[in-house]
Amino acid sequence: MKKRLALILFGLLIVAVSAPVYAQFEWKVSGYFDTNAFWFKNVANGTAQIYGGYKDTDGGTIPNNHSIDKDGNYFNTRGRFQFDAVMGKQVSATMGFEMDASQWGDINGGKDQAGKWMADQAAVEVRHLYLDFAIPYFGVPVPMTARIGIQPLNARSEFALNTDGAGIMLGFKLDPVTISPFWAKPSHYDDYANEDTDVYGLKALARVGKLSLGAYGMLYNMRSYPLNSASQGNLDGVDPSFKGKMYWFGGYADGRVGPLDMKADFVYDYGSVDSFGAASARDVKYQGWVARLNLSLPIEMFEVGTKLMYASGSDAKDSDGTGLPGRTTPWGTTTKKVTSYVSPPGTETASYGANGAGIFYDNMITGRGGHFRGSSGTAMTRGAVGGTWHAFGFASYKLFPWYKLTGVAGYIGDTTQNGNTVGTATRANGNPRDDSDIGWEVGLYNEIQIYKNLSWGTSFAYLFAGDALADWESASAPGSNISTGDIWQIGSIIKYTW
Fold it and tell me: Global pTM?
């Protein structure tokens, strides 16, 4: 009897000691589901180039054909689910999944095509798969963390880096500064070959009074460029045509300055894309920049402000739309220099951060509507802002606790030289036309909180199209410039978050 009692007490002791350990484990689930609807006219999806290459949504520019001067509409749906396995404050593992129907009635099915008729598509994507843990001190009196795996990689996502990929990020908290070095692997080819791409970066963030001050730097060492041009599929001995080494340096400030809320950014890119010895493929130098200043004044339920941005553009005499060595520019010269601000390969700059009214730089409410930006998973592009500048004003008023109304208006200009950032219009002699007027844009937004986790937003944006959006059409001799009509888009989004 005593032995049994002793065993019972021993078992209870084990449970008592173990319970606090096991009680620390917790499953957390978060995510969102949304559905967008759009009705639009003359909205274009920008191509992934340094400049130029305007295309309408169907790829055609013939009047009364495809989508020029015709209206269109579609629905899309997205769901994101994140699962966190948390063990106290020391360790957690994250799995993130995404399901997209880029349009209801998608034709092909598969990735991003969950909206295909009859459904049942293999459209579940692994977005995140990483481990977070606190690094033991080992005598170093600094809180240290590590994140390893497929993770979000961001450095001021509106302009510099906004992607997901495999890598390692560390964190060192040196109050009031947090320093985060990281390394990522955008491309890996033959294990024994030196054709890979590596990204090395460092981020720093400090809280000073009412301001958050940040800085970052990144090196893209691209031993093969574009990133998918090296030997693949066991094609041993096939060398890539180009290589590149690019740097991005940026600084920013967010917070309160007197009575004003402020966002300020400056980013500089520098580097080159080099050929592998071809005489006609001279190396191409890159050097561009972007600056932004947002100021707003909140007064109880009312807010008014201004949003300013300037991004350098290329010279069409120095670069073609790709910025690759050996390519011929529209002026008949050989590409040698890219002065447009460019985004890194694989980054999807959050162009709503450029603060337009809802067409040219995406839609700040719905997000996934038509736009004029370009992105590429394998090459540098002008992204959302390169070759443009803008000045906008806005005012918002929270009429009720559940309803906010915002109006935006401003001007967008072109900074590309001897050509246009988006349009491809030409002169009578065949050389590119150089226009400065992208247009005036206005927008109106409604944000309605239906329930705590369920919201509904609507948007209306109108762009009075300028000359810099005109396109060259050569389908019928002798060809002509086509000026797109004014551009408008109406959007709606219903979103549930948890």
Answer: 0.89
